[in-house]
Amino acid sequence: MNLLRVLATVSGMTMVSRVTGLIRENLMARIFGASVATDAFFVAFRIPNLLRRLFAEGAFSQAFVPILGEFKSQRSPDETRALVDHVATVLTWALIAVTLVGIVATPAVVWLLAGGLKSDRCSVAQAATVVASQLGSAADGFDLAVMLTRIMFPYIALIGLVAGASAILNTWRQFAVPAFTPVLLNVSFIVCSLFVAPHVDPPVLALAIGVIAGGIAQLAFQIPALMRVGMLPRIGFDLRVALAHPGVRRVLRQMLPATFAVSIAQISLIINTNIASRLACGSVSWITYADRLMEFPTALLGVALATVLLPSLSHANAEGRPDEVSALLDWGMRLSLMLALPCSLALWLLAQPLTATLFHYGKFTALDVIATQHAVTAYGVGLIGLVLVKILAPGFYARQDIKTPVKIGIVVLIATQLMNVVFVPIFAHAGLALAIGIGACVNAAMLLIGLKLRGVYHASPGWLAFALRLAAGLVALGVFLWWTDARFDWIAMRAVPVERIAALAAIVVGGAALYFGVLFAGGMRPRHFRRTAR
Q1: 451-468, pLDDT tens digit by residue?
Q2: 140: left (phi over 0), alpha (psi -120 to 50) or beta
Q3: How far apart are CA 221 and CA 137, in angstroms?
Q4: What share of the chain is helix, strand, coil (3-state, %, to 5)?
């Protein structure tokens, strides 16, 4: 299997997802702005998303994929099919139970995540405008968040099953369908923002409807692909039989430390959201819009590479090929650095043009642009760490070692919150983004050191020459972006959006051409990144 070709396929599908995601965010910014209503929605949507990352896509995938890969390569098809059926049975009923409990406990969950929504953070004039245009009959941001959360909580069950299906398909090297699936949620958001919002009260309720419709569409889209590989799970009703399966018990044993590993990042997210909910009105929304910009390169590089690497790393580890494991990690890090560092530089230097061009329309004001810009700049500092964590952590997961990332994560959680104490009073909401970014860099460094100390990873020859070429390309790119950004007043160009879009596109294309041109002149070629795996 040509990993570079597979990565291009996954990244291409992810690109479609992220582009439609930016269209979604653009519409949301234009229609809803950054207000107590959007704060309420983003808090509400964060709750099922948090649980999804915690139990479904996070801990479940990290525990299930290596064991499923082992069964696929070393056991019979019938044994592998039995594992899939029993794991799917346990997953389905667990998700249903979590959903029902979550709906009942929603007020407590919302208070835990964003208790600041109960306070009056907005000016009287802004609050009056928000109530008239967004909240409708909802009493305040907290009540609205509770209502939206209850509507969206079933999304955790839907997306949990989608995560299970994606884990199966990725193990069978069917990467395109899982990578494209998120597009359906974005399309659902777009349709509901345009056609449902004008007909519901409050209008932001349309976004919650879009979440549920998107979850149903995502699950339905994966079913034909599972049938083609002969792995459509058969959900049973007898949990005792499913739980007695030795493979299921192994997955559950791995999920416990995996849950702790993933929960560390989610605990940090809960704390940060709660802090943001107590800052200026709109802070949760500003961070969320900035997060969307940061997630674009993170998904294209980190998530896509992790999706491709984990099955290959698990397969190489199961076959006892440590040199292949090290070579795969080396390939992933070089590719990440080459592509993520210029993106980090662009987020740092082009924060205002990116924010203004994507979001500065309708109810999204110049103040919102500047506030979001600060968070984007802060995220840019730590983008490389966020990407590398997704490359390095699978080096542990493939060996079914989840305890080490847990220990590292605890250290990073403490360090991140200590940084919040320093940064938030100085930079307000942007301080939260800065702490996350620096914390991610610390996380990546500790993961790399752990892999080297355990002999899992050893650097391949040629790193010095590679670093010098990257440095030359980054210096050229930085000078170009700094010089061109100063030529435009991006906020004032709101009156001529076509010119603003054209100017940003020209800068991005020109910067990419310059950067890769310098790398090419320095001797770097596409063949240096070709990689195959069994």
Answers
A1: 999 988 998 888 999 999
A2: beta
A3: 36
A4: 85, 0, 15
Cβ 468 vs Cβ 502: under 8 Å = no
What the block records as the tokens of 93 is: 């009923």
Cβ distance 55 to 91 under 8 Å? no
246 neighbors 254 (Cβ within 8 angstroms): no
Residue with tokens 């210029």: 342
Spell out the residues 6+ positions from residue 85 whose beta carbon is closer than 8 angstroms to its own: 233, 234, 235, 236, 242
* Burial (CB count within 10 angstroms: exposed 0-12, middle 13-18, buried 19+), residue 427: middle
DSSP 3-state of 456: coil
Dist CA 358 CA 375 (whole Å):
15
List, in sequence order, the alpha helices (H) in 319-365.
322-349, 351-359
**If you write DSSP's letter for every residue of 2-18 in order, what string do you get?**
BHHHHHHHHHHHHHHHH
What digits encode the pLDDT tens for the residues 353-405? 999 998 888 888 899 999 999 999 998 888 898 889 888 888 887 787 878 88
Structure tokens that stand for 168 in this block: 């199966």
CB within 8 Å of 467: residues ≥ 6 apart: none
CB-based contacts of 230-238 (< 8 A; 24+ apart in sequence): 230/81, 231/81, 231/84, 231/168, 231/172, 233/84, 233/85, 233/87, 233/88, 233/89, 233/164, 233/168, 234/85, 234/88, 235/85, 235/88, 235/89, 235/92, 236/85, 236/86, 236/89, 237/89
Per DSSP, the three-state class of 532 is strand
DSSP string, 464-481: HHHHHHHHHHHHHHHHHH
pLDDT attached to residue 124 = 39
Contact indicator for 348, 381 with CB cutoff of 8 Å = yes
Structure tokens, 213: 């419709």
Pull the structure tokens for residue 534. Answer: 């069994």
In this predicted model, what pLDDT tens digit does every residue of 293-318 receive, in sequence order?
887 788 777 777 777 777 788 778 77
Strand partners, 160: none
User: Nearest CA to 325 among 217, 424, 458?
Assistant: 458
pLDDT-based confidence at residue 478 (cuts at 50, 70, 90)? very high
C-alpha 375/C-alpha 398 separation (Å) is 34
Largest Cα–Cα distance of the chain, in whole Å?
68
- Cα separation, 269 vs 27, whole angstroms: 25
